Amino acid sequence: MGNSQTPYQIEFLGGKDNVYFFFTKFKVGYLVKFKPSFYVLDAEPAIADHVYELVIAQIEKPEGPIPPDERILYTIAAIAEDFFNKEQNIAIYVCDDSDGRGRARKRKFDGWFVYLNFEGRGYMKIDQGFHEADGFSYSASLIFKSENRLKIQIITALDELADRYNQPK
C-alpha cells in the first residue's frame, strides 16, 4: 500500500489546464490543475507565457468525516515536480478567502512548502498580499525553480502588481 511519504498513483489528463488526477485510500478524488494565467502578471511574454494558476480541487468524497492523509501532500509535491520539470514554469497559488478560510489555506500551503523542503530542492516561493477597497484581502504565492534565469524580473513583476493593486482606491 505504501507508506505515508509514497505519493498516490497519479494520472496526467493534460489538456489546456494541465490536469492531474488522483484518488486517496479514503476514496477522495482530487484534480490538480495548472491553468494558464498569462494575464496575472503584467510582464514580458518570456514570463507571462509561463504563469499558471495552481488549483487543488476535491472533486469526489464519501459521506462523513475523512481522516488526515499525509500522502495527499506527497502526491501534490510529486505533481508539482513533474509540472516544473517540463519547462521554466511559474505557478501562482491564490489563497481564496471568500469563505473566511484564506489564512488557514495559506498556513497549510506554507507548511507544505517547508515540510517538503522545496527550497532545498531548488524552488523559490515569493508571497504577496492583496487588499480590496471593501476590506477583503487575500494572499498569493509564486513558485518557480531557483535556477529560472528570469527570477529577478518575476519577483519585480509580482511586486509591481501588488503596488498597483494595493494603491488607495
Automatic annotation (TrEMBL):
It comes from the Bacteria. Pfam families: DUF6169 (PF19666). This is Uncharacterized protein.
